[in-house]
């Protein structure tokens, strides 16, 4: 028994030393690479500008308050990028309910969003991550 205990300890220590170290990823890394709140506000503003100039889909926005949509979009961008915000708007299903959006509408939105990210020079890696986060919302937005 006297020998077994130190042996077990040695095995356990060796296992710990061999365990791969998880890279430490800051929760708000994406938020920071967007330039924090100021960068996100600029991105939300640029997105709304692109949407309003897009003849394919701007009629959808004709009756709403774009100031409020921009505020909620900024809040949502802050929340999904790990920033210190809570999204207070409606769910994506609720917000787009009755619009009967199709994939082409969503694609147009994503193109406008890409143009906005370029306009405010969001770094390429952050662009890819944000695009993936928005793309994941497609099923909650299209066909509601
Ligand atoms: C990933 C894609 C999208 C995101 C993240 C997004 C996000 C949002 C957010 C946060 C709101 C405000 C929610 C609220 O009022 O509580 C909203 C509203 C709205 N969205 Fe989207 N949206 C997306 C795609 C689209 C598309 C493809 C269209 C149409 C082509 C669209 C049209 C609208 C309209 C018309 C409103 C209501 C505006 C108003 O009442 O002022 N959205 N969206």
Order of SSEs: HHHHHHHH
CATH class category: Mainly Alpha
> What's the CATH H-level homologous superfamily?
Globins
Count of alpha and pi helical runs: 8
Strand tally is 0
The proportion of strand residues reads: under 5%
CATH architecture: Orthogonal Bundle
Structural class call reads mainly alpha
- Assign a percent range to the helix content: 55-70%
The whole-number mean of residue pLDDT values reads 90
End-to-end Cα distance:
67 Å
The CATH topology annotation reads as Globin-like
Overall geometry comes to: globular
**Cα-based radius of gyration, to the nearest Å:** 22 Å
Summarize the structure in words.
Heme binds at residue 96. This is Group 1 truncated hemoglobin. This protein has helices spanning 4-18, 29-33, 36-52, 66-80, 92-95, 103-119, 124-135, 138-141. It is mainly alpha-helical. The chain has a single domain (25-141), classed as Globin-like (Orthogonal Bundle). Helix 3 (36-52) packs across helix 4 (66-80), helix 3 crosses helix 6 (103-119) and helix 6 (103-119) packs antiparallel against helix 7. It is globular. Bound molecules: protoporphyrin IX containing FE. Protoporphyrin IX containing FE (HEM) binds at residues 57, 60-61, 64-65, 68-69, 72-73, 76, 89-90, 95-96, 101, 105-106, 109, 134, 137, 141.
